Amino acid sequence: MSDNPVDAVQEPSPEEVQPVHPVQPVQPAKSVMDEERNFPRGLAIRLFAYLVAGHVLAGFLYLLFEAGAGGR
After folding, report:
1. Is residue 8 part of a domain?
2. How high is the pLDDT of residue 12?
3. Could you give the number of structural domains in the chain?
4. Does 3 fall in a domain?
5. Taking the model in full, what pTM does it have?
């Protein structure tokens, strides 16, 4: 007999083995957000803010160029 504890382990007899039950197919979880139908609210707010800020900046630059051109 060896000193290896793995060798001492015996396989269970067929009476000790539990029967295997068939595995039920797992349904995928329903997505919290349907990306094809819903536009993320945070992204929409950020997009709106960037559009407004971009137009405000463009308008300010336009006014600076107009004021600079009028001083001739």
Report:
1. no
2. 66
3. 1
4. no
5. 0.45
